[in-house]
Amino acid sequence: MHEPPRDLADPKTLLLDYLDYYRVVVGRKVVGLAPAELGRSHLPSGWTPLELLKHLVYMEERWVRWGFAAEPVPHPWGDQDDDGRWQVRPEETVDALLAAMDLAGARTREIASRAALDDPAAVGGRFTTAAECPTLGWILFHILQEYARHAGHLDVARELIDGSVGE
């Protein structure tokens, strides 16, 4: 998958298409890594590629389902332990987390299709008052920068693991 077309001008389509693009980029960074490498940190901060992947899944769910749509989410902070550090359970696999990321992306598109970029998030999920509710546009842009930033982190980690660079 390549970046969205350069003549694309609709802001919502541009945001959603770039989110799809970065999900693919993130997937490419973790696919092919041995399980030992997925669960091992190569950076002083201590996160592993699998932990970062799980974080992205939960981050998107927190902002869109629980945040914008105010849907009940059983464990919105399920990517973190009690100290706020990313964690992955032994039974969680790269394939399952990639499938969950794809599902989160489909759900984001579904929710966004029913709203305008300037619509505020609903009160009742992540946000308890109207004053703290960001717009859909703000949320999608925030998610996009999370994916882009963490794709860069995974790029560095992958280069340290096996020398692989690029998209």
Automatic annotation (TrEMBL):
Entry-linked Gene3D superfamilies: dinb family like domain
Protein name, UniProt field: Uncharacterized protein DUF664
